[in-house]
Amino acid sequence: MTTPSFLRPLLLAVALSAAVAGCATTGPRSTSVVAPYSDKTELTGRLTINFSRDGKKESMTGKYDWQQDKENVNVSLTSPLGQMIAVIKVTPHSATLTQGDKAPPQTAPNVDALTQKALGWTLPVSGLRYWLQGYATDSDGKPFTASPANDTVITRDGWKLEYVDWQDEKAAVPKPKLIYATRLALGQAVDDMNIRIFIDAPDR
After folding, report:
1. Which of 13, 24, 29, 6 minimizes the C-alpha distance to 178?
2. Whole-prediction pTM
3. What is each CA distance from 54 to 122, 170, 182, 191, 192, in whole angstroms?
4. Which residue, 26, 49, 87, 189, has fewest beta-carbon neighbours within 10 Å?
5. Do 130 and 144 form a contact (C-beta atoms < 8 A)?
6. Cα–Cα distance between 125 and 107 in angstroms, integer?
7. 50 Cβ contact list (under 8 Å, min separation 6)
8. Could you give the C-alpha distances from 161 to 10, 58, 141, 164, 168, in angstroms and in order?
């Protein structure tokens, strides 16, 4: 199944920020905070976007390959059938989007400007660099560190993050497995959006 062209930027924006079902665990909740933040990390997983567009409910699913170091982020995004949708490269000086259909690359000074250019409104895409590892800045501008016992926050950008499941919540330093990100009234083109980000277990 081919991803509709008008939906591709939505997947791209989420991948740039950054990441379906999962059963909530039962029993005692660990109080351990998430693993320490790392500038350099590689993650894979899948994401599902549910949103309203002109009053109509839409849904889209994709797979991502996320690589970051202290200064750069590279993201490859594919359809569920393995079709390349896009490659995104973010450096301290620019952000570039190359779509799988060989359309000319789009470039902007930063990742937020790139989503504005691609979508017509700005998403806080730079946040996923931190959200995927369990870190955020809350609505009061204070640092937030997730844990199985403290798993919800409203970010400074107005997103509600819920850390729904963990790779191993009993670990000394648990890592996120499933994140819900919800935002209402993103702009005229999209009324609301719910993103479910699955993070694959790291290779052992």
Report:
1. 24
2. 0.81
3. 18, 43, 18, 7, 10
4. 26
5. no
6. 15
7. 57, 58, 59, 193, 194, 195, 196
8. 18, 21, 15, 9, 19
Distance CA 21, CA 19 (A): 13
| Eight-state DSSP code of residue 193 | E
Q: Cα 172–174–178 angle (5° rounding)?
A: 165
List all residues 6 or more positions away from 138 whose beta carbon is below 8 Å from its beta carbon. 144, 153, 154, 155, 156
Least Cα distance to 194 among 46, 48, 64, 79 occurs for 48
Partnered with residue 66 across adjacent β-strands are 43, 75
